[in-house]
Amino acid sequence: MNIILFGPPGAGKGTQAKNLEKKLNNFQISTGDMLRDEIKNNTEIGTKIINNMNDGKFVEDEIVNKLIEKVIYDPQKKDRLIFDGYPRTLEQAKNLNFLLSNTKQKIDFVFFLNVKKDTLIKRIEKRKILEKRSDDDSETILKRYDVYMETTKPVLDYYSAKSNFKEIDGSLKIDEITSKISNILRV
Ligand code: AMP
What residues pair up with 113 in beta bridges, in sequence order? Predict the structure, then answer.
């Protein structure tokens, strides 16, 4: 089963992806983590993306799509994907469709974790203290939220028109959200 977790920064996609990874024996595919690893490992990609990442802007589609391609062509991960933070643009959604159909896969469910802006900001402020992420300062948080709302609206519109789209109240407790998703997945 392949799943997309969709929602603004701080909606809890990563937390839910980790819970579902265990339940489904799937793989969390976090483009944010993959990009942060590129920076940490000082790769060529890392040097290209560091400014955008620190400013809370999106990384270019071409770079993110290339990273995702490797994952989708990995036979071990076939039909065991939990996308966390991808796709974020229509170009990325198109690329995902293409790669999935090339590998005879599909998206089974899209879960939209819907959370209000003020709740998100409080959550990210907390995460900043726990995880010390360089893009979690107050100004960048607001920027990331605005960029997200502007750029991903067409992606949200695209997926919400499909029958496998499920909106979940992302302000609920972590376990409540996991059990809502699990009920839909029947796991
Ligand atoms: P995240 O960990 O998902 O909150 O992502 C952190 C940052 O990584 C974002 O603010 C973007 O700069 C970058 N990023 C992650 N995923 C994507 C994506 N699918 N497209 C473009 N940029 C991304």
Answer: 168
